[in-house]
Write a structure and sequence with these properties.
- It is a single chain.
- By secondary structure, the protein is of the alpha/beta class.
- The protein contains 18 helices and 15 strands.
- A 7-stranded parallel sheet has the order 5-4-1-6-7-8-9, sandwiched between helices. Strands 12-11-10-13-14-15 form a 6-stranded parallel sheet, with helices on both faces.
- Helix 1 packs across helix 18, helix 3 crosses helix 4 and helix 11 crosses helix 16.
- The model has no long low-confidence stretch (mean pLDDT 94).
Length: 472
């Protein structure tokens, strides 16, 4: 069902700005989300006709779609945004999202396969690829229905790599952009994919007028893959762009000083103990975040520099992610096991070396940001990593950032961070020691420069820059 008035601006993403639950009495409850896209879309102003197309992710979402008759959701639930949620068959969605997007494309772009055993692109993979096509086609058709003539469409991420080409066939009048929030694999690693699948992915994105990435490194990798798989040049004429997403300083600073954050700071201070230094990390338990090696580096620090025993605490927040996949559940358990092992080996009655929390709590994360002496951000590979940008913005006294050279944020923050090879546990331990021994004035000066770089392209400007570039 199309909207009564075609939209001038459309956003497409797997996850939308609202989610629904069904209460015991059958009543629908809605919860609005945040993030860069929400901030960005609100920046275009209420006078611009805009629609967000997303997938129904659970039973509550599907019930909301049914009650809306398949059309736009009630704006009272969505913060005034016009949202169309797609009730894609649950089996098709599972194959597209878990089977292809998160178990194949994500692993390729993050270079995460254990290649002696995986990947195996067999008949089951091909069956799931058909579901991925169907999922992308559903988005393309919905966008075609909702868009006004000549509208601008911003399609998001690896879940929807085929949608630009599909939409182009349905609506050649539209201005179509695609944005990749992940890294892009180098050509040799991208070559793990079957040749026809690799070509279909690239030509899918090249159906857009503009393909954009978080860093020049990822954009160049995409171009290299196009040349290797499709031949020299970009035959579609697609423009390649770079837009590095920054932290939303105004929101973070205001939110970080609300009473619930102050309460959690008091609890954390009591758990840490008077006069102790803090090494803070805040991550989802995604395999790419490298949490286990971060813990091993902290253990190496305590072994190699015993002067830090009882003088430092590693505050590690590892919030469960994709727990419907067995590999992620086992990784979360390994994080827990290593943290408990460190506490058992080094802990004393008055000192817990690792404070590990696995339950998501945004206010507590902000409290940790404010308290951090050192922030550890050591992903194996990351499209950007906003935690690296958020901690310096929120820090009360200034923070030393230990940053992986494989994070997209490295391009912007490396000059004032202490950078590491994420695989080098000994090197990361020495970087933590260097960060902890940094004099307070030097730490504050570094933190000031980090915060300035981190906020150079806040979400609203990030979105508007893409929109304006797409419109030409």
């Amino acid at each position: 069902m199309a909207s009564t008035q075609g939209a001038e601006v459309l956003v497409a993403s797997n996850r939308g700005p609202v989610s629904y639950t069904v209460g015991p009495d059958g009543a629908l409850g809605s919860r609005r989300g945040g993030g860069g896209l929400v901030s960005g879309l609100s920046a275009i102003g209420p006078d611009t006709d805009a629609v967000w197309v997303c997938a129904a992710l659970g039973d509550g979402d599907r019930e909301a779609v049914r009650r809306a008759g398949g059309g736009l959701l009630p704006e009272a639930d969505t913060g005034g945004q016009r949202v169309r949620m797609l009730d894609i068959d649950a089996g098709v969605y599972a194959d597209a999202y878990n089977g292809i997007a998160n178990s194949a494309l994500w692993f390729v772009h993050h270079m995460m396969y254990q290649t002696p055993l995986e990947p195996v692109f067999d008949a089951e993979f091909r069956r799931q690829w058909d579901a991925y096509r169907a999922y992308n086609q559903a988005f393309a058709e919905a966008l075609a229905e909702e868009a006004a003539p000549g509208a601008a469409v911003l399609i998001q991420d690896y879940h929807l790599a085929l949608a630009p080409r599909m939409l182009r066939k349905l609506r050649p009048d539209l201005r179509i952009g695609h944005f990749s929030h992940t890294p892009w694999a180098p050509r040799d690693y991208f070559g793990l994919l079957p040749d026809d699948i690799a070509a279909e992915l690239l030509t899918g994105i090249l159906g857009a007028d503009r393909a954009a990435f978080l860093t020049r490194r990822w954009a160049d990798a995409f171009t290299d893959c196009c040349h290797a798989v499709l031949g020299p040049g970009i035959p579609s004429g697609t423009e390649i762009g770079v837009h590095g997403l920054g932290a939303d300083a105004d929101f973070l600073r205001e939110r970080a000083h609300r009473p619930d954050v102050d309460e959690r700071m008091a609890v954390l201070r009591e758990q840490i103990g008077e006069g102790r230094r803090t090494i803070v990390r805040v991550d989802r338990t995604e395999l790419s975040k490298n949490i286990v090696r971060g813990l091993l580096a902290y253990r190496r620090l305590l072994e190699d520099h015993p002067e830090w025993r009882e003088r430092v605490v590693h505050v590690a927040f590892a919030y469960p992610s994709r727990q419907d996949l067995a590999l992620y559940r086992s990784y979360t358990e390994e994080v827990r096991r290593v943290a408990e092992e460190i506490n058992s080996e080094y802990g004393t009655p008055g000192w817990t070396p690792v404070l590990l929390h696995l339950d998501d709590d945004f206010a507590r994360s902000l409290a940790a940001y404010r308290l951090a002496d050192v922030a550890l951000v050591n992903p194996i590979r990351d499209g950007m990593n906003l935690v690296a940008k958020e901690v310096p913005v929120v820090s009360d006294e200034g923070v030393a950032l230990v940053l992986s050279r494989e994070a997209g944020a490295y391009e912007e923050l490396a000059e004032h961070a202490i950078t590491v090879n994420p695989y080098d546990v000994v090197g990361t331990a020495e970087a933590l020691h260097e960060a902890l021994t940094l004099p307070a004035p030097a730490r504050a000066e570094r933190s000031k420069h980090l915060a300035a770089a981190a906020t150079a392209l806040p979400p609203a400007k990030w979105f508007l820059d893409q929109l304006n570039a797409l419109r030409g």
